[in-house]
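Workshop exercise sheet. Pairs work together: one partner reads the sequence aloud, the other fills in the structure field after running the prediction. Swap roles for the next sheet.
Pair: D.N. / O.F.
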Amino acid sequence: MAENPDLKLVRRLLAGDARSFDAFFGSYYPRLYRFALARLDGDADLAEDTAQVVLCQALSKFSTYRGEAPLFSWLCTFCRHEVSRQRKARGRVQGDRALTEDDPAVRSALDALLAESSLEPDVAVYEQDVRRLVKVTLDCLPSLYSDVLEAKYVSELSVNEIAERLGKSPKATESILSRARVAFRDAMRVLLRQEQGGDFDGPSSVLGY
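Structure field:
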């Protein structure tokens, strides 16, 4: 079995490898920033501070990382604690909203998928095939649908940011996103089944559609 790439990265960081630190910061800082931003009422400055604090905490705790969970999930544990601390320090206790990805069952499923994608020996080939099919699927959709999906899931813009781009209300934009996701799902199902001779049920079984 291939070595866990997350654990390999952490070992390089512990050894003081400068390139690994640059790769770690470049990869995880933006993700932690977005993770914090969604939980701090869109406060960009506070999200930046939180992401930086979490990375510093992680650097001091790397010796405890055993690779049992994906590295990003491990970092998110620190981030949740820091977000909670920041919110309490600023009196932001009221108005919290539950995020789908914070549901324990959803987190467990995401962690399982991340772990599998890190360890499967043929995952690179699989991911290349999926990326190709995703591109084909997006090309087949109406331009409005493909544009909003790319803005949401590639550029990782918020619904409000996408709405501003479209000149529509957030509610109307969310409706467009919902229809676009359904159209993408249906088109992707067809392509995946054709690609696998009608026997493929991986993403369908994982995502529940």
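Discussion prompt: The two ends are 31 Å apart (CA to CA). What would you look at next?
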